[in-house]
């Protein structure tokens, strides 16, 4: 099951508590997953279409909960592209009018004319209903990429006006959806991990929030580990260049006046460095007899380097 399918499976099971929220969720589904068909002589028919049978069951439940459907509904299954199936729920003309009027999408003017509109603001006036609306919109046309791969959520709406409407509802919930167009359709999308997590919370997909946060934590742990590794590599690089510099300096002393001219403790360190060009100062300290701590080794190494500088300053021609 894809992450999107997991989220949807959880969303269709969110309990329907208030009628206002059921109406808001259904309105989003009407906006995002239905079309109007003209049924010859019998007026128009509102048809909900989805590839997900569980979403269709949810639509039926919402229609009953809002009480706008009184006549028989027709369920159809359309086969598309071989194995892909499209589930279709067709309402009678009267029911279609009732549903659309209830959602503020069908308005009768004073002249008795019927006009189709974007959903009434009334439907998403309350915060509870806004949450239900984005849940319905997600069931209608939402997609969330697996958080392990990338942070991306999007809704594909029939036109840009529908996308702008969803963007407005989302912005009232603190989600800053962005809009793009694709083949005449309006896309609303989110690309921020925090916002997608918040979206899942708002839609009441509690399990999905957990698995999303889990994946996110794992991802950031992995990133931390990579950062730490790169940092180690960096330190190793620095250590090597310092060691290379020391080796070169000691070789210069050796050429200029011989290592035996050094004091015993400096000579011992110089020989160890030449023999162990990749060892850290700490490791060199452990090899000394008696062993010496890192700061002690550092101190001796500094003296060695200073001697080399003096030797260079006093060597003519260098
Ligand atoms: Zn509500």
Could you give a short description of this structure?
By secondary structure, this protein is α+β, with helices and mostly antiparallel strands.
Name a few traits of the molecule:
four-stranded antiparallel beta sheet; 16% strand; alpha+beta; 11 helices; binds zinc ion; 318 residues; Endonuclease I-creI
Overall description:
The protein has 2 domains: 3-204, Homing endonucleases (Endonuclease I-creI); 240-314, no CATH class. The protein is rod-shaped, with a radius of gyration of 36 Å. It has 318 residues and is an alpha+beta fold. The N and C termini lie far apart (74 Å). The relative contact order is 0.09. Helix 7 (193-202) runs antiparallel to helix 8, helix 8 crosses helix 11 and helix 10 (281-287) crosses helix 11. It has helices at residues 3-11, 19-33, 53-66, 93-102, 127-141, 160-171, 193-202, 206-257, 264-275, 281-287, 294-314; strands at residues 34-38, 44-50, 74-80, 84-90, 106-108, 114-116, 142-144, 153-157, 178-182, 185-190. The strands form 3 sheets. A 4-stranded antiparallel beta sheet has the order 1-2-4-3. It has a 4-stranded antiparallel beta sheet with strand order 7-8-10-9. The mean pLDDT is 87. The longest helix has 52 residues, at 206-257. Bound molecules: zinc ion (ZN). Residues 18, 20-21, 126, 128-129, 132 line the site of zinc ion.
């Amino acid at each position: 099951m894809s992450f999107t399918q997991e989220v949807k499976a959880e969303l269709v099971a969110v309990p329907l508590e208030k009628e206002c929220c059921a109406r808001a969720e259904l309105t989003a589904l009407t906006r995002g997953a239905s079309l109007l068909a003209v049924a010859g002589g019998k007026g128009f028919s509102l048809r909900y279409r989805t590839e997900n049978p569980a979403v269709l069951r949810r639509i039926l439940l919402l229609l009953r909960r809002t009480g706008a459907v009184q006549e028989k509904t027709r369920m159809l299954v359309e086969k598309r592209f071989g194995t892909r199936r499209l589930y279709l729920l067709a309402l009678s003309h009267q029911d279609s009018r009732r549903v659309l009027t209830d959602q503020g999408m069908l308005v009768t003017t004073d002249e008795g004319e019927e006009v189709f509109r974007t959903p009434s603001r009334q439907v998403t006036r309350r915060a509870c209903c806004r949450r239900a609306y984005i849940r319905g919109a997600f069931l209608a046309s939402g997609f969330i990429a697996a958080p392990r791969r990338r942070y991306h959520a999007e809704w594909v709406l029939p036109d840009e006006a529908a996308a702008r409407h969803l963007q407005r509802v989302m912005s009232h919930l603190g989600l800053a959806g962005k809009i793009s167009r694709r083949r005449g359709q309006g896309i609303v999308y989110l690309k921020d991990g925090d916002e997608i997590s918040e979206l899942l919370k708002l839609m009441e997909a509690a399990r999905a929030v957990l698995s999303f946060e889990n994946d996110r934590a794992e991802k950031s742990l992995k990133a931390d580990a990579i950062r730490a590794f790169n940092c180690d590599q960096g330190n190793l690089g620095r250590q090597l260049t310092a060691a290379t510099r020391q080796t070169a300096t000691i070789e210069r002393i050796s050429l200029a006046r011989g290592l035996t001219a050094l004091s015993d403790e400096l000579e011992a360190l110089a020989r160890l460095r030449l023999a162990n060009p990749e060892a850290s100062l700490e490791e060199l300290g452990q090899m000394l007899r008696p062993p010496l701590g890192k700061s002690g080794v550092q101190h001796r190494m500094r003296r060695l380097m200073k001697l080399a500088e003096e030797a260079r300053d006093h060597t003519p021609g260098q």
